[in-house]
Amino acid sequence: MPHTTNMPDRLPPCTICPTLADQARAAQKFGWEEHNTHLPAAVGRLKVVNDYRPYSSRKLQLRRCPECGTYYLYRSDYEYLVNGSEDEEYLTRLTDEQAAEYLNSNEP
Ligand SMILES: [Zn+2]
Which residues surround ligand 1, an ion (CB under 5 A)? Predict the structure, then answer.
């Protein structure tokens, strides 16, 4: 009998992950506040496990849900434009396999 370890109903109920999409993107442009978008506030509750670029304005972080242990990749980008700089943020939910790859390497 094959044994399945990835049963979703074994996870404790989580109040964070259901509010987050598998992929999310937000952008803030200076001078265009009315068009700015933001990631859900729940992103701030994710714990930073690895900060790959702590001194860069372009962030790359492995984050983890403190309630159910799901891993996420958080990225931010910064673009200098003549008519106003633009900040972008991305959040991607990782599979167990993807998370393991990030955990096993210091420089993804
Ligand atoms: Zn969760």
Answer: 14, 16-17, 65, 67-68, 70
Would you state the structure tokens that stand for residue 14, as one six-digit string? 């989580």
Bridge partners for 31 per DSSP: none
Q: Are 89 and 39 in contact (CB under 8 A)?
A: yes
pLDDT tens per residue across span 35-57? 899 999 999 999 999 999 999 98
Neighbour-count burial for 39-68, b at 16+ CB within 10 Å, e otherwise: beeebeebeeebebeeeeeebbbbbbbeee
Q: Indicate the domain borders of the chain.
A: 21-103
| Cα of 91 vs its chain's centroid, Å | 3
